[in-house]
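Researcher: Good morning. I'm working through a list of sequences from a screen, and I'd like to move beyond sequence-only analysis. For each chain I'm collecting a predicted structure so we can compare shapes side by side. This is the next one on the list. No need for commentary yet; just the structure.
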Amino acid sequence: MNPLIGLRGAVVAPHSLASQAGLEILREGGNAIEATIAVAATLAVVYPHMTGIGGDGFWLMHAPGQTMQSIDACGAAGAAVNKDLYGGMASIPWRGPLAANTVAGTISGWGAAYDYSQAHWGGKLPFARLLESAIAYARDGFPVTHSQETNTRNKLPELKEQPGFARAFLNREGEVPRYGDQHAFPELARTLSQLAQAGADDFYRGELAVQIAKDLSAVGSPIDLSDLKHHQAQVKAPLSLRLSDATVYNMAPPTQGMASLLILGVFDRIRQKGWTPDNVEGIHALVEATKQAFIVRDRYVTDPAAMTRDPLDLMTPAMLDQMASKVPFGKASPWPAPHSDGDTTWMGVVDSQGRAVSMIQSIYFEFGSGVVLPQCGFWWQNRGCSFDLQAGKLRSLLPGRKPFHTLNPAMAHLDDGRLLVYGTMGGEGQPQTQAAVFSRYVWGGHNVRSAVAAPRWLLGRTWAEQSTTLKLESRFSADIVEALRTLGHPVEVVSDFDERMGHAGALVLHPHGLIEGGEDPRSDGSVAAW
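Model: Good morning. C-alpha cells for this chain:
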C-alpha cells in the first residue's frame, strides 16, 4: 500500500468530495487555511451524520518560521442552562432540545482562521469562494454514502421524533435515503449563502444570528441570541511535548489533547526495540499508557477556567516518569472505564509553501442532538450532554462553562525535518488511534498510508455504545488476540475495517517538498494532491 503523493499541496478528509473541494482551493492559489475551510464546509453538507455547522471545532496551524497556533472554537453552555432546567433528571438527555444546550462554535473557528490567514498567511481568496462547493451540494444534492444510510437507519428510532429531523434526513416518502440516492438540504444552502455574503460573524451577531435564535426558541433549545453574541473563538498556543525524536502538538483543554500527548510520552519511555502497534508487546504497552493518560485526563481536564492544575504541570518529565512507572508489563491493569463518546470529522491540508492545518469539527454523537433548525436547516450539537448534573464535580453543569471535548487535532515535527499532520474522529478512540498512527509511522516501519489503514484497537466506549471492552479488528492474528486475553485484557473482536475505530488520515511533508498522504478505508475519504 503506497502513499499518495504530491508536490504542490495535498488534502485528506473522510469524504472524497470534501478532499476535492479543498484541492480546488489550493489549485487556485489558496493557502492551507482557506482550503481547510472549504473542506470543513463541504463535510458539513455531504457527511451530515458526522458533522455540521451546529457543532464545535478545533484547529492547529503551522507555517515555516512561525510559532504553531491553535484555535479553540468551543461553545459554552447558555446563560439559562443550569441543573434546574432538567427538573430532577439524573443526567442530561442525549437527544432533543435540552441536549442542544451549548453554543455552536464551528463557524467562529472558520472566521478566526480566515482572519488569521489574511493577517499572517497572505490569504486572498474571498470567504464566499470557500463555501461554493458546500452551497452547491446543499442546494443541488449529493450522493448518500453507505455510512450515512447505515447511521440514519440505526439511529432513526431515537431521532425520528426530534424537531425537524425527519424532514431533513428522510426522503419525500419518509424513508431512509439509500446509498447513492441524491440528497439535498435547501434551507442549509440558504444559510451557507448568507454566511458567504455576510461573513462568519453573522452567525453570532448579525441577521443570521437573529434567525438562529428564533429557530432555537421554536424547537425548545435554551440557547438564545445573547448566548450567540457573547461567543468568541480563541487563537492561542497549543500544547506540545518533546519525545525522543519528535515534538508533538495538540489542543489544550477543554479537549483531551493532553491525553493524546501523554500516551505517546509514556510509550516513548517504556517501549523497547521491536515494540510496535503490530505486536502484542506494543499493543499492550500502548493500551496501558492509554489507561494512565485517561486517569490524569479524567481527574483534571475540564473547562480551562475551572481547572485546578496547569496542563503543563501534568506533562513534565517527572510526571511522565511517574506514569510510566505504573505500567505493568506482565498483565493488564484494572480499567477505570471512563466514557467519552462522539462523532467527528478530521481533515488535514498542506499547501505549496509548507503551511499546514490539522482541524477537527464535531456535533458530538452522530446527528448531534437530532434537532434541526426549521428555517436555517442545520442540526445542533449535543456536546453539552457530557456535563454532570451533580454539583461539585469536575465537569458539573454551570452557565457559561465549556464542555469537555474528545476533539483533538494533532501535528508532529520530526527531528529529521518531516512534518506529520494527523488526526481522527472516534470519541474515546481518538488519542488511541493517533498513538497507533504516529507509532506505526515514526517507530514501526510503516509508510503514512499503511499506518492509517493497518488494524486498530479501541479501549473503551465509542459511538454512544455501552461496551468498554478492548476492541480489536479481526485483521489482527489469532495469536495476538489470544495473547492479549491471556494478559487479562477484555478483548472483543470486531469487523476487519470497523467504522467504530474512527476515520483517520495523515499527511507528511518532507524537507525537500514531497507530500505523502494516507486516507482511512473505514471512511469515504481520499487524499487529493497535485
